[in-house]
Amino acid sequence: MLDDLARRLGDRAPAVEVTVPTVVHVLTDGRRRAPDSAVRSQIATLNAAYGGRYGGVDTGVRFVLEAVVVTRNPSWFADPLGNEAAMKSSLRRGGPETLNLYIAQLSELVLGYSTYPYWYDGGPLLDGVVIDWRSLPGGALRNFNRGYTGVHEIGHWLGLFHTFENGCGAPGDGVDDTPAEEMPTEGCPAGKDTCPGGGKDPIHNFMDYAYDRCMSEFTKGQAVRMHEMWSAYRTTLTNPDPR
Ligand SMILES: [Zn+2]
Question: Per-residue pLDDT tens for 207-223?
Answer without folding.
Answer: 999 999 999 999 999 99
